[in-house]
Amino acid sequence: MKVGILGTGLMGAPMALQLQKAGFEVTAWNRSPEKLQSLKQAGITTVTRAADVIAACDLTITMLSDAAAIQAAVFAQPAVLQDRTLLQMGTIAPGESRDLSQLVQAAGGAYLESPVLGSIPQVKSGSLILMVGATPEQYEQWRPVLQCFGPEPQLMGPVGTAAATKLAMNQLIGTLTAAFSMSLALVQREGLDLQKFMGIVQGSALYAPTFDKKLDRMCDRNFTHPNFPTKHLLKDMNLFVKAAQGQGIDATVAEGVSQLVEKTLAQGLADADYSAIYNTINPEEPLTGT
Ligand code: NAP
To answer: Residues enclosing ligand 1, CB less than 6 A?
Structure first.
């Protein structure tokens, strides 16, 4: 089976290699061609136009930043979508995914979504959590491709349902990281014993594994080599706020986290690890005297 991928950024590049490892014939495209070089060296076919991927492949995966990027890449030559299938795996809003589905179908193609939880290490180990928005028939048809990224893709329902699930999960990334940053900041400013504090957190019902994962980065203020950059967290928090407000949900907490993330970007940390929001919550130069 020929599988294409549009977008070989942080996630797309290892995903292309994972597809190759699983035995698929892979064709890749990226807007900035330099990100295709290492894939080309690994024996993956690379092309200069997104339409050439779609035309050549049974299934084309999009792993692009946002819905605008998908529109730009996929609809440059809509005629190539005829009898082709698009599998959208980036993080976009449910409404955006449903709109894309309609546009692809209007061009004679088929569309399904499977946003993912996990990051580069989980891509490489084939252990991503996949949420699928598709018909049961599409799910069965494309399961062999989905399973090279994660063993148990979860069919959530029709297109839009997986996108909504992903936003519900990703707002937790922002709010849990902000919540932990506030607690850690107070612990440090009060000069408390960090190990004792972490022991209490870990033994309580309030513990989340992400606290341990991000502790060293926050303590060292080291946000380099990100798996998930701050700029994408801002996108996801804003998508959540819009989707939640559209459903009549009070999203004040998420809006507050969005503002923190925006301030973090303003410090030049757009491409840093998202745990850099700790720098905003607990600035090195404190906002008030300690
Ligand atoms: P990334 O490294 O920033 O890559 C983004 C990709 O989108 C690049 O290929 C970029 O091309 C392309 N792009 C951006 N704007 C474009 C445009 N207008 N036209 C064409 N291409 C465009 O992001 P990533 O971390 O791989 O994430 C990709 C998607 O997966 C995002 O929706 C993200 O939220 C989601 N996601 C990420 C993670 C993670 O841990 N990183 C986990 C789960 C889900 P250039 O190279 O030319 O800029």
So the answer is: 7-12, 30-32, 35, 63-65, 68-69, 72-73, 90-91, 116, 119, 227-228, 232
pLDDT digits (tens, 9 = 90+) for 56-94: 999 999 999 999 999 999 999 999 999 999 999 999 999
**Which segments of the chain are extended strands (E)?**
2-6, 25-29, 45-46, 59-62, 85-88, 110-113, 116-117, 129-133, 154-157
Q: How far is the CA of 34 from the centre of ligand 1 (A)?
A: 15
Cα of 90 vs centre of ligand 1, distance in Å, is 7
- Give the closest residue (by CA) to ligand 1 atom 8: 9
Give 187 Cα–ligand 1 centroid separation in angstroms: 35
Judge if pTM exceeds 0.90: yes
Q: Determine how many CB atoms are found less than 10 A away from the CB of residue 125.
A: 11
Residues forming CATH 1.10.1040.10 domain(s) in the chain: 163-281
Closest CA to ligand 1's atom 6? 64
The topology (CATH level 3) of 163-281 is N-(1-d-carboxylethyl)-l-norvaline Dehydrogenase; domain 2 (1.10.1040)
Which DSSP string do the residues of 125-192 spell out, in sequence order?
A: TT--EEEEES-HHHHHHHHHHHTTT-SS-EEEESTTHHHHHHHHHHHHHHHHHHHHHHHHHHHHHTT-
In CATH, the architecture of 2-158 is 3-Layer(aba) Sandwich (3.40)
Query: 286 pLDDT exceeds 70?
Result: no
Q: Could you tell me where in the chain the CATH 3.40.50.720 domains are found?
A: 2-158
